[in-house]
Amino acid sequence: MSKMTEGKKRFVKRTxxxxxxxxxxxxxxxxxxxxxxxxxxxxxxxxxxxRILQSGLAGCETKQLATEIASKTGxxxxxxxxxxxxxxRRRTK
Length: 93
What we know:
Blueprint: H1 6-16, E1 23-25, H2 32-45, E2 47-52, H3 54-57, H4 62-73, E3 76-81, E4 84-88
Parallel strand pairs: 1-2
Antiparallel strand pairs: 2-4, 3-4
């Protein structure tokens, strides 16, 4: 997981601000399938916006689940706001 500069964080936030989440996490939580889909989208777009449904939290906090998914996918957690979070990962060459 690479350290992000403040400028890169601002860029990702600005880019994803108006977009709808591309991944919705439900009852399965941070399952293997969810992580694979997040990795696939990160490889394609470098950034992804994820929304956690109330049923997906299952007694844990949004930030806790977001941090767990970020570490599983090797991405940087850009921002957590409500039940939505943004991830960024540089493309592998």
